[in-house]
Amino acid sequence: MIKKIIGLAITTSLLLGAESRQFKSVNDISAEERTELKAPLFNLLNSTAFPVFLKELEVTLKVGICGDELKDKALGFRTAMIEPYGYIETSNKPLFFPFAKLDLGGNIIKTEPARNNDVDEAGRTASYYTHFIYAPILGMLIKKQVKFLCISGGSLIIPVLSEFDPTKNNDLLSSKVFINMVIMMSPVTMVASILDCGATASYSMIKGYSTGEIGDDTTTWDSSSWQDSYEDPNNKNTHATTMKDMKSKGLEKLAFIRNSLYMNLGCQGFFNVADAVDGIDPIMDASMLSYTVASKMHGASTISQVPLLQKTTEFPGYPSTLCKPIDYPLSGIESQTVLNIAYPLPGSGKEQGEIPLNLSSFKNVPQSKDSTVYVFWQRKDILAGAYHCKNKMDNGGNK
Amino acid sequence: MKKTIISLCLPFLLFAYSDLGKAGHTYPIIENNFFDDIKEGINNLDVEELREQTKKEVYKQAMGENNLGYCKDYKEITEEDYVLLQDNIYSPAGRLFQEKGTKMYASIDKPLDLCFIDGTYDVLLENQIDYFDRITNKKCIYLVSNRNIMEVYKKYPTRYREMFPARQALETRFNVKCKPTHIHLIKNDRVKKEHGIDKFKQRVEQ
Q: Complex ipTM above 0.85?
């Protein structure tokens, strides 16, 4: 009995000793043990979900032709891919860039009240500054020629800085500038929002993304369970080639539902055109704002000198983008983008419109000052080898 | 004893294998592992240069674009304010929701004023702001061209939510042809008032 008590005491002291180290000074704490948050630019390997690129890259043997004149015609292979296009970040501190740990001051511009403390308010007092940074990460890292896939290249550009955006927090001006977005507010779109939520979650399941998991994506897609969910029970078909067709048709249908009425951010419902958020959870607010930024960039593409975001994915009934991207002002085209959170802590890729991660998914990181950075991944359907690989952003933003 | 010897020899049977040799041509894998390429790229990346690029980009964003010439004389034009739908929009049921080419209006009773002004030098900037503040009762949103907006904020420190760098996107959206132009939006109308630049060039006597 005494031996057992002594053994228990030794075990307990060892365990407690392992958990609670005593530090004599700050200098005793190693770099890994410090709670300082790593800026994504200094933590590229962990903050960018590179497995997403490998997971989605699919080069097929379906050929197509690009080129208008006979002498320009080129043969290409139908390819689906995704690449990290840049960063979307939010912060309540003006001219603060958490992606690069850069604080450019901003005493002139006031810090925004990111958290909404007054529960009786309509949630309009909370606000963030949002930035979109075009940073073609793969193109910057892989210097070898990958022209076959037309991986985006060029230098860093910042097309969206809400500190200098007159539509930020101005509903009236936003409604006038982005009329094509506001027109979507109707009972039809409210119903579509519910469909969109279901479609988004299913789409994500089909693509095999895990939810709420930090680090590698290990969930794999189970074709039989998907088949049971989506096929007509009167028309079951277990043939291997037909299953592949059903998968591609299913994905087209889901993409159509998600892209047809883009004011709905899936399970998050309507988003506020003028960037205000409810201020309860900064991580969720950042997810909503990232969609707002992307939608504005699509909307401004047709009238802006700087080609912001364009349609780069295929779905039926809309102009093809297999040979070159097109200005497409009406849609955020949610199924075109995937976000992976990079700051305050890295996380796996999630479809836009899924129930986002929130503060409770992470350990408490007060040093982040309610700043969030997402890596913005953009899908592309191209004819590899024949694609008009002239990323207009590469020319310093001139068309 | 026999049972002990047999059980000790069991692993040799379980892990026995035979080399079946090689068939056909084989080629060494010369391509690098993707993640090794990524790690090499990260090691060679000049992060400080990227931070410098970020600072330059912010400065560039803070500068108002200079796309418009000066207005010569006063002109007032009233136009319909709308945006043309670029493509068909379909409902999830597959029905046509809005047709391509439809005129889209944001008909709002509350008025909105936008002032596209030039910020090349201080006197010009201040005169335009004084003038448009008077006629709009300080309700104008200013789009300042040819000037770093942070310098404007230093002059007008409480008005950073009213003054912004000029952008071609907004000039095109509201059909602005020259500066300074005052745009008054009410319901479906766009009242465009172009002002001759000369009256703003000199310091105005109080």
A: no
